[in-house]
Amino acid sequence: MMIKGSPELKLDGDKVFCTACAKMIACDKKFQVDQHLRTASHNAKVHKLKSGPVQQSVRMSFDNASDKTKSEKDVFNQELCRAFVAANIPLKKLQNQQLREFLQKHCNQNISDESTLRKKSLQVLYENVIQEIRTTIYKNNYYVIVDESTDACGRYIVHLIIGTLKEDGPGKPHLIASKELQKTNNVTVTRFIQQALSKFFLPNQVPAEKFLVFLSDSAAYMVKVGQNLKIFYSNMVHVTCLLHGINRVAEAIRMEYPLVNKLISSVKKVFLKVPLRVQLYKEKFPGVSLPPEPVITRWGTWIKAAIFYADHFDLIKELILEIQDNSQCVIDSQKLLNITAVAKDLVFIKTNFGFIPDIILSLENRYLSLRDSVNLVNTFSDKCKKVPGAIDFCGLVWMSERLAFSIYVITFKRFNYMCNK
């Protein structure tokens, strides 16, 4: 360590080493160091060394070499950690002996333990990546996507995704914040967005004028969140997701056919956690997959299940009627399969609403162009209008989401205007 005011003096442990004189200074008090600095011999050697190299002590040489090795080790650990994270490989895989030996052999580096990478390298890597994202976002207009979901423990988790808006389309989205909320309403979500953006861009550096699009679902509290954010971001336009509107149509269809919904639920329970029935099904119908298990939060899965039952209604009916069991699910399934209206409803759903899962899947494509999105939405609207019979529920739900689609188009035009401004 260099002593302030005397660069030729170095602290070597608990001793003082003079690089000019190349010797240790025997000193217990400061005046002894000052006395050495005033000697003619020392001053002459200092003058001579101004144009030449400075001699280092043995310990200093080892410390410099150690610092260099440590720096190389840190770089290797960060790059190794980045590669594993980018490839979605858990760091605990480094505990595998064959993998460690392979990396040590071909990388000529000692592989650190997973805990070391997680404690030291992962945080540095995270900060570097956040800085890269921040630099990219700060130079461009940007959009924000916020959505709330429930985890396996029933906790409310809200996520914030941010991405750039350019003339050639939206950029890659980045998840920059996740937080558990005690309750979900417009106040808590608005506060979360403000805090997340302030932390991401650093306080007092949020480019409010470049925040152009806020995308969310069409929940009532999210609409209020958009109104709250409009106060702080005057150029922002709130757009509700079109897929939520289409999913509401699918939910209306499910509610319109309660017997079909009950059949799907009952047959699902028949084969759930009963290996003997599953084995009987596979033996009787080889090559035919088990009845699907729709999940309400997975859009379009209920209609897919209805299509499956329409295609294999006779097979499923034959098998269920053969089961001799007093289970409530079996009894309910047998009753429903004997109702003629259920078979007719399944055929009707398949014929008139079978296109909805494909539309949802197509609109989920991240890189879908605006023109293709508009065409898909118009196709959906046209097919819904052609459904025979009482279709008021489709028309009403669709018209309720028509405003969101109009805002989507207006947003695109406004974005072009802002880019060319």
Descriptive report:
- InterPro entries: Cggbp1 (IPR033375), DUF659 (IPR007021), RNaseH-like_sf (IPR012337).
- Helix content is about 60%, strand content about 15%.
- The protein has four domains: about 1-55, no CATH class; about 65-135; about 140-240, 2-Layer Sandwich (Nucleotidyltransferase, domain 5), CATH 3.30.420.40; about 240-420, no CATH class.
- It is an alpha+beta fold and about 425 residues long.
- Strands 5, 6, 7, 8, 9 and 10 form a six-stranded mixed beta sheet that branches.
- Residues about 60-70 have low confidence and may be disordered.
- The chain has helices at about 30-35, 40-50, 60-85, 95-105, 115-140, 185-200, 220-230, 240-255, 260-270, 275-285, 300-310, 315-320, 330-335, 340-355, 355-365, 370-385, 390-400, 400-420, and strands at about 1-5, 5-10, 15-20, 25, 140-150, 155-165, 170, 175-180, 210-215, 235-240.
- It contains 18 helices and ten strands.
Short description, anyone?
With 421 residues, the protein is α+β, with helices and mostly antiparallel strands. The chain contains 18 helices and ten strands. Strands 5, 6, 7, 8, 9 and 10 form a six-stranded mixed β-sheet that branches.
Tally of separate helices: 18
How many strand segments? 10
Termini gap: 56 Å
- Biggest sheet character: 6 strands, mixed
Using only C-alpha atoms, the radius of gyration works out to: 34 Å
The percentage of residues in β strands lies in: 5-15%
Integer count of domains: 4
- Secondary-structure class: alpha+beta
Q: Can you give the helix content as a percent range?
A: 55-70%
Q: How would you state the average pLDDT, rounded? A: 81
Shape: elongated
N-to-C series of helices and strands: EEEEHHHHHEEEEHEHEHHHHHHHHHHH
The stretches of 5 or more residues where confidence is low (pLDDT under 50) are 60-68
